[in-house]
Amino acid sequence: MSDIRKRTIGDTSPETRDVSDDQKEDVESEDDAKLEVEELAKAIPQGTDHTPHILNSALSGLSDRWRNWVIRSIFTLFMIVGFCGIIYIGPLALMATTLVVQVKCFQEIINIGYAVYRIHGLPWFRSLSWYFLITSNYFFYGENLMDYFAVVINRTEYLRVLVTYHRFISFCLYIVGFVWFVLSLVKKYYMKQFSLFAWTHVALLIVVTQSYLIIQNIFEGLIWFIVPVSMIVINDVMAYMFGFFFGKTPLIKLSPKKTWEGFIGGGISTVLLGLLVSYIMCQYRYFVCPIEYSEALGRMTMDCEPSSLFQPQEYILPNSLQVVWKMFSGKSTITLYPFLLHSLSMSVFSSVIGPFGGFFASGFKRAFKIKDFGDVIPGHGGIMDRFDCQYLMATFVNVYISSFIQTASPQKLLQQVYNLKPEQQLQLFQTLKDSLQNRGLLNVY
């Protein structure tokens, strides 16, 4: 027994020695590849305040604090005007803008991982990241097309195949990327490559999934997109204004410049101005009508009879509020659009929870010691710096609609009907016809 133990302990066979050397080499290589955060930050594109030379010259006499305030104010105004222009063009422009913003945000997040890729010479990271972006967009945007344009797509023979097997095709595309990643694995860098693989998927979850939800919100009516976006913008602007002029009490360590004064002032402003924006939009069909494809017109249309959600309703106030209201109006009831009540819920979320999207992004940037995700917008940083809260808000609105507002869509039901066999479609038609006749909703000739 002792001889066996000695041989085991002292075994220096080539096989054992090779395994030990390989494991040691792997560990040493990983340790050598780990850079300090400060060193890694040097390789990451840093956000800088790129300001036009003319504007820099005009503001040269101001202190850094006031110079930054003026620059942020000017470009905030430009973005708001540009946003209004896109709304005026129509829903297709909004969808295209959403896609462009999505791609730019993904690029800014992936650039940080790309810095690691370049440092260690890892293969295919950038190509794989963009491949997965295209694949996920094919899946999500295909789902939207099938939900809202199924009737048109099914009329085209070659597109019908894409509709029928859409999810299977999407899965196959993903599997190609998965196999590609496995084949790209390099000895000594397994841990780093799997970390970057997870990095890409988290970026897709944050950016692509949320933009898909934004498109769904747009199809429910522009008001479900414009109002939440406006609330985030109002909260961001007013929180900055209140913090700039009155801020003294730090709010959270992740963002030292955020103050309680800005948080509270921005929240109150968001509720009040959000209700005002909602009240104005409720009066226009362009904003409240769902976006649907009209077979008669052969295009998308937003012409409808507004639902009860966007028509004034009379509400009886609680006894505690009737006394106060009678002093101003002489009535114990109040007339308002029901959407305003839902708008109140969205404004509270955007004021209280919305900023945490910004705090999350601040923590992410601090982890890599970068100032901004990019330098596209002077005074603001990158696109992701401006849309970090928007994605969180878009998810809330989509969940809110599906939970409290949305009913079964005729377009989605038709899509399911078209997937049935012809004899099943005829059976469904006859059953529905008999039901409508029995209820007196269909005249029999």
UniProtKB/TrEMBL annotation:
Main location: membrane
Membrane topology field: Multi-pass membrane protein
Enzyme class: transferase
EC numbers on record: 2.7.7.41
Associated pathway: Lipid metabolism; Phospholipid metabolism; CDP-diacylglycerol biosynthesis; CDP-diacylglycerol from sn-glycerol 3-phosphate: step 3/3
Catalytic activity: a 1,2-diacyl-sn-glycero-3-phosphate + CTP + H(+) = a CDP-1,2-diacyl-sn-glycerol + diphosphate
GO molecular function ontology, one term from the record: phosphatidate cytidylyltransferase activity
Name this polypeptide is given: Phosphatidate cytidylyltransferase
Gene assigned in the entry: LOC100742746
